[in-house]
Amino acid sequence: MKYIISATNRPESNSRIVAGILQKIYKNFNCSTEIISLRDVSFQKLIDNPYPQTLPENVRQVILKLNTSSAFTIVCPEYNGSFPGIFKFFIDHWTYPETFEYRPIAFVGLGGRFGGLRPIEQLQQVMGYRNAFIYPERVFLQNIDNLLSDGEIIDQEIMSLLNQQAEGFLKFIEALEEKKLSASTRN
Hints:
The chain is of the alpha/beta class.
């Protein structure tokens, strides 16, 4: 399974809307995906006890999904020049090497003037440090509030970029799997 991570827990976030749009794009390529929205993951028990010996069941289940995924796309907003703190907190609970190593990962950034460039570059450092396979074609959605209308992206050039990224990412995943280089084929 391929997952699309909406990297914020903000209610009614644009990241979640974009994740839904990406899910439709992948479906057009006959690829089923599931969205993991941090809004749907309860972190309360972790906030009260940040690093327990046993993770709360709901968090553990989401991490297990990532550990067995063939790939994932991260849709990340820019918060104060970086990615949301809740996403970093979540990443800090992923397992190494299972969640990261040889996992194909693509990125879509969104924000204001720079379209989420800074958080995506920072996430690329984190994922690269942990030996993920980073798909190089990123998409940045500048001035996201002006791009969305009724849950859809109204800019056809941006839609074209998202389609190109999805198509290329699927080929990237397939090539890694054929050479037995991806996390799902290495063992």
